[in-house]
Amino acid sequence: MEAILDFNQDLDVGLFDRVVDALFSGKGEEQKMAQQVLTQFTDHEMSWARADRILSDSNSLQSKFIALQILEKLIQTKWKILDEEPRNGIKNFSLNLIVELASSEESLRQNRVFLSKLNLVLVQILKQDWPQKWPDFIPDI
User: What DSSP line would sit under 42-62, residue for residue?
Assistant: First the structure.
């Protein structure tokens, strides 16, 4: 479980999913350990840099929600001190994912709850950047 806390290595998204599953489905020591590891992961100052991999590669909706919570916390607390490049990367990634998930009626139905949370992340970005730093938001959509 602790391997997901090594930020010098690529994140094993499958292992991350198993840790999240242990939190929600495990019992006793396994669940307690998963809680501790995930708390350390989400509190790490660079956890936001792994959110895109989790959102792209995870098979677990709970894992994806944790990644969105990490992004939401980053945007609310550290957005203004991030360099422009990671801010633009997060904006573009979020917007592209929203467009992808909303591309068909079936996808909208299947991802309705996830898409709602992703839209809230976009709203947090807009609160920080629009209209001064993201004047092209409407045309970008």
Answer: HHSTTGGGGHHHHHHH---HH
Q: Enter the tokens of residue 96.
A: 């592209």
Q: What is the pLDDT of residue 99?
A: 93
- In terms of Cα–Cα distance, which of 52, 66, 86 is closest to 17? 66
Per-residue pLDDT at 58: 97
Q: How many CB atoms lie within 10 A of CB 115?
A: 17
d(CA 112, CA 102) in angstroms, rounded, equals 9
Residue 54 and residue 65 in contact, taking contact as beta carbons nearer than 8 Å: no
34-39 LR contacts (CB < 8 Å, sep 24+): 34/1, 37/1, 37/2, 37/4, 37/5, 38/66
- Low-confidence residues in the chain, pLDDT < 50: none
Q: Which residues contact 140 (CB under 8 A, 6 or more apart)?
A: 95, 134
Number of neighbouring beta carbons within 10 Å of residue 65:
18
Q: What pLDDT sits at residue 9?
A: 95
